[in-house]
Amino acid sequence: xxxxxxxxxxxxDETTLLVEETGVIYSGEEAARxxxxxxxxxxxxxxGVAVASLLGFAAVRLAPSTKPATNYAAQTTRQxxxxxxxxxxxxxxxxxGADYAWTxxxxxxxxxxxxxxxxxxxHTSGTVVWTLTAADGSTxxxxxxxxxxxxxxxxxxVVKGTAMDAQGYVEGYSEGKLLVRYVRREIRDLTQEDRNxxxxxxVKMWEIEGVDGRRxxxxxxxxxxxxxxxxxxxxxLRDNDHFHNGAGFLAQHLRLDTMVLESVQSIDPRVSTPYWxxxxxxxxxxxxxxxxxxxxxxxxxxxxxxxxxxxxxxxxGPHYGLSATEFFDKxxxxxxxxxxxxxxxxxxxxxxTDPDRDMYPRNSYGFLRSPWNNNxxxxxxxxxxxxxxxxxxxxxxxxxxxxxxxDLYEFIQPATTAVAFMTHLEDMTVHANIHQxxxxxxFDVDSTQNLLDAFESVNVEGYTSCYQTVSERxxxxxxxxxxxxxxxxxxxxxxLNCQLTCKDLPEDDEQLEKIGAWAVDHYACWNVQGxxxxxxxxxxASSDSLRRVGRAICSTTFIKxxxxxxxxTTDPSFFIVHPSLARYYQMxxxxxxxxxxxxxxxxxxxxxxxxxxxxxxxxxLLSSSRDQPSEECCAGHYRYSTFFKDKMRTPAAGDTPTxxxxxxxxHPANMGLDNLVFQHLRFDHCEEDFAALLDPHSRNxxxxxxxxxxxxxxxxxxxxxxxxxxxxxxxxxxAKPTGATAPWGSxxxxxxxEAxxxxxxPHYPGAEPGSRNGAPPVVDEAAHVQGMxx
Length: 790
Hints:
Blueprint (H helix, E strand, L loop, with lengths): L40 H12 L26 E2 L1 E5 L1 H6 L13 E5 L4 E6 L5 E7 L5 E5 L3 E3 L5 E10 L5 E12 L1 E2 L7 H16 L2 H7 L7 H12 L13 H19 L11 H8 L27 E3 L2 E5 H7 L58 H5 L11 H8 L3 E2 H7 L3 H12 L1 E3 L1 H12 L14 H7 L14 H5 L13 H13 L14 H4 L2 H11 L4 E3 L18 H16 L4 E2 L18 H4 L7 H4 L25 H8 L10 E2 L11 H5 L88 H7 L1
């Protein structure tokens, strides 16, 4: 049979092939040949399928000819050509998934629901017959070099291309595997049409409640309020945080990301969820291309809505934020999202008559926020601070710790364990300070200064307080304090009287001393006692100073913007943050595929105990007479964990993927239909050589001794470093000044991450600055990784 290119003309030219009932291909120069006819559409399909099926594109038999055989000798030597799938993103950003070991010239990725083109490189004349065979055996046949097609489902296809010359003879062929996937890209790399599709689908989750959305779209739809209840409940239970401060942090937030992906795809199947690479902004600031990392299209009406800058930021000791006076004087509307799709979006508020009022956490004003975040505003709150270089350099701005390329480079290199790495992805200089910059903190200046003065009264040699603005949750979980069940006055004076309460304790009550002692020890910048580690700072402090600290804590006001708290899911920009952490995880695992000693999977060893959530704080973890076993305290952080549906700890449905299943889906060795594919893992804007980290041929000979993240002090304890309270006891060495824990810079003597005086990468013994040591490679990976590759 002959193959015809698409042609609507009736010209009887020499390149037109002949169709014979015998199925024989004749030369265009044949002297004696049958009458030509143009093929019908059905002929073309039949012809293509027949040729495509011949021995996997082996040679098509030539008809007997009266011409000398030597004239067609070239037709008997067929080339193996290279096939290529491309689309507009590939042309702009490069091959999809080139960083994954399972992609190659023979295994290529292309987007679902997006037109793509198939090419046989080097073939310039005639036509090409393509067949794409799905896993179920169904076949798609297309014609032409550069032919366009669109596949509207994820799947794996065997692709075969046969090059035909102008006379219908087989000139060459190619075969490979085409993986059709949803691909994640940096949000600024999306076309305007794709970005608008994503944002338009996402906002529906704020506009349509869950039951209505599932009725209208599909069972995968989930509303913003439902996501808020899920994230808020598991983040703000009294016994512990089951989504943060532990090994489940990454899995639980990737779970939310998957829910959002499936929800927006139920609305618009063309959509894939993007990520935000915030290191780009600071790289542009350092290069002089931007004056502020906030100068981004993200914070415009067309994207996620504008930010709200404080007129007069206040600084009290290490605390930088918005004064409660300015917050209330300007009105709640001023701190809402001002424009765009989410203009003046609100946080769910429970009424006294709501049947689910007591099913989920709420603050004293009835909003589905953390109980310790008594923000009375009905709106999604953003409190932001202009990027002032002098203030940043002085350490007096949330943007002082904006995660940078160098922060990420230093974080991702050392040897680590699974539990430590997944836990510390939450660290300030990795990602948490992004939430700080976008959410913001509001505090009362007078009570905050009174608190710092109280800590100053602890006259113990070597003691310095690094009291943080997350203290309320720690005190609440330790049952050292509480919050009013209900407050009605949303104005300034009312809110200041509706904060953390210590049950109106008298000044000489021993409970105040207990509160002060706990705070003094747990918020010490350096909690290393020298010779006798059993003697704490509180042991050396006077009872009067401890009571003064306790009394000050019980009258302090800290209010948070949404991004910084359990209600963060109400801000739509929340959902472009955590996919970036999946990229970091994939990078680390690719490094470990090359050098297994750099990543020890200890998650299984942490099952059923407290090892999966050591940074967490709560009476459940510390009390010797607790009401629940440690396994329940750390629920949410184990491999087999899912999540709770409400405050009564109702477990998720039985078919809910476990944390381990979520993480396995994100593993860079997973090439299955559930994999998490990124366009690339590059950081071309960074000065650091991230490409070398992922290059299997870029290894130094020196062994990587390194250190484990959970063997360094800074990132672990949420209140400071080297805590001797049973969380990270007996380390016996000074804290490493990473700046990863305290919001103002951690252990630097000046509090501002300055002049640490250490050489580049000292944690790699013998390493040259900027180098990467390597451990001897091993051939085999873990069994479950091999399963993903099979």
